[in-house]
Specification:
- This protein is an all-alpha fold.
- The protein folds into two domains: about 40 residues, Homeodomain-like (Arc Repressor Mutant, subunit A), CATH 1.10.10; about 130 residues, Tetracycline Repressor, domain 2 (Orthogonal Bundle).
- About 75% of the residues lie in helices and about 0% in strands.
- The longest helix has 26 residues.
- The protein is elongated and about 60 Å long.
């Protein structure tokens, strides 16, 4: 029942938006009584928090799996950078409706901790990834922060705004942005 309520909350949040999100709508979508919903989730805020935490974990896990699957790292290979950027885009596109709610409707205080945790996990993974690739000049954590913040913000806006830029063109630009790091190897 808990899983059904959480899934219903996600559906209602995306379909109706944050302002119209109510526990009664979630109970209706989950086909449970409001009393049953309240046994597990005392209020709207708790439900939204659970949905956001799960969504952040899903994105983080997708990106981490893509980094792990990339195998041996060669930051001089544009294909590696492209694969990482593609993984992030794919993770964000997987639930563009929820992404829109998080970035454009939720009060920042509602999702700041989850967003920060996601960014931190991806930055840490990327810093390790860069170090394993032999990129040792400068601070790999600073480099990872710049890459993650730039790529995250551009990728989010690309998914939400649907600009007249093809996915391939965007991936080429991400590769160009990060490509200079290969020149600064040990």
């Amino acid at each position: 029942m808990v899983e059904r309520i959480i899934e219903a909350a996600r559906i209602v949040l995306v379909r109706d938006g944050y302002e119209s999100f109510t526990t009664n709508r979630v109970a209706d979508e989950a086909a449970v009584s409001p009393g049953s919903l309240y046994q597990y989730f005392p209020d709207k805020s708790t439900l939204v928090t659970v949905v956001m935490d799960r969504w952040s974990t899903e994105i983080s896990d997708r990106v981490a799996a893509s980094l792990a699957a990339a195998g041996p790292v060669d930051v001089n290979d544009p294909g590696t950078i492209r694969a990482i950027a593609d993984a992030l885009l794919s993770a964000l596109e997987a639930d563009a409706g929820l992404l829109r709610i998080v970035w454009e409707e939720l009060p920042a205080v509602r999702h700041r901790a989850a967003q920060h945790a996601l960014e931190t996990r991806v930055r840490e993974l990327l810093a390790v990834y860069l170090s394993a690739a032999g990129v040792t000049s400068g601070d790999p954590r600073a480099r990872a922060w710049v890459i993650v913040m730039a790529v995250e913000n551009v990728a989010v806006r690309w998914v939400l705004d649907s600009p007249a830029i093809s996915r391939d063109a965007l991936l080429d630009e991400f590769s160009a942005l990060a490509g200079g790091f290969g020149a600064r190897r040990r």
